[in-house]
User: Fold this.
Amino acid sequence: MSKALISVIGLYYLVAHWNDFFTALIYIRKNELRPLQIILRDILLSNQVFAGGAGVGGDAGGYAQRYADQIKYGVIIVSTLPVLILYPFIQKYFEKGVLIGSIKG
Assistant:
């Protein structure tokens, strides 16, 4: 009965830790040590800058403006793949953990 509870709590902790970017944003200063979530945040912020009209004049940002949405969506998919790959293996424990509190008798 405790396997279900431990696996559900572990899955929640894994997803929270995977999506945590604020701790790395505060402590890590070197660009080569940045985790994937910080890189994803930088790409999303740069996409907002280009959407606001920055880099419109000349050739500045032409490639980035044309393909910003595709790059953004691709990075989002790549960053969620580890959790999506792990979830089917833990799903049976997740369902048991949800149903443990609902069954009486």
